[in-house]
Each structure stands twice: as structure tokens, then as C-alpha cells.
Specification:
Elements (H helix, E strand, L loop, with lengths): L11 H6 L4 E2 L9 E3 L6 E3 L14 E7 L12 E7 L5 E8 L11 E2 L6 E8 L2 E8 L5 E4 L5 E2 L5 E4 L2 H7 L22 E6 L5 E6 H5 L12 E9 L6 E8 H4 L4 E7 L7 E7 L1 E6 L4 E6 L7 E6 L5 E3 L12 E2 L5 E5 L8 E8 L4 E9 L15 E2 L5 E6 L7 E6 L1 H4 L1
Antiparallel strand pairs: 1-26, 2-29, 3-4, 4-5, 5-6, 7-8, 8-9, 9-10, 11-12, 12-13, 13-14, 15-16, 16-17, 17-18, 19-20, 20-21, 21-22, 23-24, 24-25, 25-26, 27-28, 28-29
């Protein structure tokens, strides 16, 4: 059955009375949506490029918090847990974290290749750390360094400087530990680390000074404050992406971005997109990257870049027309993506795009109340289950705060 269509009433009082603000356009058939977490506390997962489900597609990870609409403080604790989607959407508590943000949480994710282990970041004393928990035995060990993205081998991780990120872009880093290099525009002892999830060994593989000096100089880099964000391993783990960003004029201008790739030991760095605008991205395979960008001489859009070459082609022209959080379903036949709030009703639309035919399928349009803005906005960040049959989003459209919602896409993808 399609999602219930509703007429949007005007005025805050009338809107608050509605139990659900999800809708479909006229004659638009959308898949069923099931809310799998409940209030009074809020639940969400965060970014779209992490493994939210276990390999069986039964257990769905999430985080729990008792407040919204403000920045996290150093003493704010969230709970980590998972939903058993085969047992009445039962919430199973796993642990807690003091290192988190509204957009990417605490990097909670299933450990690649494991059927029982999950990991997330936390703060212990004067450092950010990573916990690895076996959900069956409840045995937990702690790695003395936070992680950002984990390779498909489940052992190799890379990480950025979360204190630095928090200083330059609150909401994506962690509070509680100030950036010791706050006054340094491109420090030599901060940057990207490789972390071994078995031994806990950590190695600084690329410094911010190295990254700032890589490639041809750009006028916007003069006096700029540099940082790195958004790391992601390729599908075979041979390379990883990172966005090199800088704030011109000592941190007071609009940020500039370029997308770089490298090997897990920090070698063979390659500039995929030049300084300018690059936003959300995903690896299609070990060589190709789908990204919302503005290549030289081209309009902004989704483009498929071949790593370490100048090959690029547009994807979804006239269909995928808005920046959004993109990922490929298993098999790379479909692209899953979303939009930011649009129109007076502030609707966030979640889509599937069929690569071969150019067909777009709307999975739902979800109202984002106006109080969800800036650092504590709630993007849908659609994630898929390993079997490719379900999508989970974060959304407050049911007026219960941000919660996890499951969309059955099996009738669409077969």
C-alpha cells in the first residue's frame, strides 16, 4: 500500500496536531514506511556511508539521546544500540559514547566481515578512542584512537583529527578536547592516521602540511586554514577518499574543497577534483566514484569519476538534479539518494535512480520541521540493508523527534 496522502494544514498549531507529515504527490505510489524506533527519546544513525545492518539484514544500528535542538556538550552521553527488525523492532542497548555529533553520530557501524562485532567512537580522558564490541558475548575492547572509515578487511581504518574538524565545522567533529593546533593553519603533526583495529597501532600517514602543499598552488590557499573530512575506503580497500578543505583568509571565508584519493599508507595521492565545489560521494567500485561536483566548465551535478584518470561523465542528467547523500545498492544497478528540505513544506525526498534506464522512483517525501536547522538538522541520510530489500532513514516527520524509519523497497528492486 502507498504512504497515506495528507493535506498539509497551515499554521503551527494545526501542523503540530498531525500524527505524521509524510506525503506523496498526486498519483504517486510510494512504498510502505515503518517507524522502527519510538519516543520519548530520539533515535538516529547519522551518515549514509556506514554499515548500519548486520550481514543478515536483521539488526539495524542506531543511537539514542534525550534532547534535540542544541549542540552537544562535553558531558552529553548518547546510548548506542540496535533494533531487532525480526522481533517487533525491539531495541537492544549496546553501550554509550561521549564523542558524537548530530550529522555523523559517533561513527557507529558494523565491523566489515563480522557477523557479531560493531564499533563506535568515545572519549576517554584526554583522547578520542574506538570501542569494538561483540554483540553476542558482550566482550568489548578499546582502540586508543578514534576511527572514521573502516576497510573491507575489517582491520584497517583511517581517521581524521576530530578536534580540528570540530573547531572549523561544529557538528562534524567532537567536543571535549580542544584543537591544540587551533592557531596553526596547516600543522605538521595533525592530519590522517591509519589505525589497526586488531593491534591498536596508529600511524600518521599524511599531515595537514603535506596535504596543503600537494599539487599546484591555488590562490585561495594563501593564509588558509586547512582540515580534512569525509573519508571512505574503496570497495576493495586499495584506496580511500578524503576531502581536503580550507577556509580562506585565516578561517573567515567560504570553504573550498577538493577530493583526493590515496593508498591506506598515505601514498600515491591523486587529485580527483580540483579546488572548488565537491560534496557527497560514494565509490561505485574499486575505480569509480560518484560525486556531486562542479567539474571545470561544467554545471553542478552528479558525475562519475574514474580514479587516477581525467575520465568523467555526468550521471542522472535532468533527473538527479539536487545535491544529496548517494549510494549504490548491491549490484550497482540502482543509486539511492535524497534531497535537502524543499519548498514551503520543507520536504526531504528519498529516491531510487535506475542507472540503465534513467528511471526515478520516489520512496517518500518527509517533512522536516523548521526547528531542525543548521548543526542539529536531521538529514534523511538513506542507508540500505545488505540484501538490498530495505532502506532506513532518519526523520522527525512523525512528530516524535528524530526516529529510524524503514522503507520496504523490494517491490521496486525485485
Amino acid at each position: 500500500m502507498p504512504i497515506t496522502r495528507r493535506t498539509f494544514l497551515q499554521g503551527a498549531a494545526a501542523a503540530a496536531a498531525l500524527p505524521c507529515l509524510a506525503r506523496a504527490a498526486p498519483n504517486e505510489q510510494t512504498p510502505p514506511v515503518r517507524q522502527i524506533t519510538r519516543g520519548p527519546k530520539c533515535h538516529w544513525f547519522g551518515y549514509y556511508d556506514k554499515l548500519e545492518f548486520d550481514p543478515t539484514s536483521r539488526y539495524c544500528l542506531g543511537m539514542e539521546v534525550g534532547f534535540e535542538h542544541r549542540s552537544p556538550r562535553a558531558d552529553d552521553v548518547i546510548r548506542t544500540g540496535m533494533v531487532d527488525t525480526a522481533d517487533g523492532d525491539r531495541w537492544i542497548e549496546l553501550g554509550e559514547s561521549r564523542s558524537w555529533g548530530w550529522q555523523q553520530g559517533c561513527m557507529l557501524q558494523w565491523r566489515p566481515g563480522s557477523t557479531t562485532e560493531v564499533l563506535w567512537n568515545d572519549r576517554r580522558g584526554d583522547r578520542f578512542v574506538c570501542h569494538v564490541l561483540d554483540t553476542k558475548t558482550r566482550k568489548m575492547r578499546t582502540i586508543p584512537h578514534a576511527v572514521y572509515t573502516v576497510g573491507p578487511d575489517g582491520v584497517t581504518a583511517v581517521s581524521a583529527d576530530f578536534a580540528r574538524i570540530q573547531d572549523v565545522r561544529p557538528g562534524y567533529g567532537y567536543v571535549g578536547i580542544p584543537d591544540p593546533h587551533k592557531q596553526d593553519m596547516a600543522p605538521k603533526d595533525s592530519g590522517l592516521w591509519r589505525v589497526d583495529l586488531e593491534t591498536g597501532e596508529q600511524t600518521l600517514i599524511l599531515t595537514l602540511a603535506d596535504i596543503a602543499n600537494f599539487g599546484p598552488p591555488d590562490e585561495s590557499m594563501k593564509g588558509a586554514k586547512h582540515y580534512v573530512n569525509h573519508l571512505l575506503f574503496s570497495t576493495d580497500g586499495s584506496r580511500f577518499i578524503f576531502l581536503h578543505r580550507w577556509l580562506p583568509r585565516g578561517g573567515k571565508g567560504r570553504r573550498v574543497t577538493r577530493m583526493l584519493t590515496a593508498t591506506p599508507d598515505g601514498r600515491d595521492v591523486y587529485e580527483v577534483t580540483p579546488p572548488g565545489m565537491t560534496s557527497h560521494f560514494i565509490w561505485r567500485d574499486a575505480e569509480h566514484i560518484l560525486a556531486w561536483a562542479r567539474p571545470a566548465g561544467k554545471p553542478a551535478g552528479f558525475y562519475l569519476f574514474k580514479d587516477r584518470t581525467r575520465q568523467v561523465r555526468e550521471v542522472g542528467k535532468g533527473v538527479m538534479t539536487h545535491d544529496g547523500h548517494c549510494s549504490y545498492l548491491p549490484g550497482a544497478e540502482w543509486v539511492l539518494y535524497d534531497t535537502y528540505p524543499q519548498g514551503k513544506e520543507r520536504l526531504q525526498t528519498v529516491y531510487l535512480y535506475h542507472v540503465a534506464t534513467g528511471r526515478k522512483v520516489v520512496l517518500g517525501r518527509f517533512h522536516l520541521p523548521p526547528e531542525y536547522k543548521g548543526e542539529w538538522r536531521c538529514d534523511t541520510h538513506p542507508r540500505f540493508s545488505p540484501d538490498g530489500r530495505n532502506v532506513v532513514i532518519d526523520s522527525p516527520h512523525t512528530r516524535q523527534g528524530r526516529q529510524l524509519h524503514l522503507i520496504d523497497i523490494s517491490p521496486v528492486v525485485g
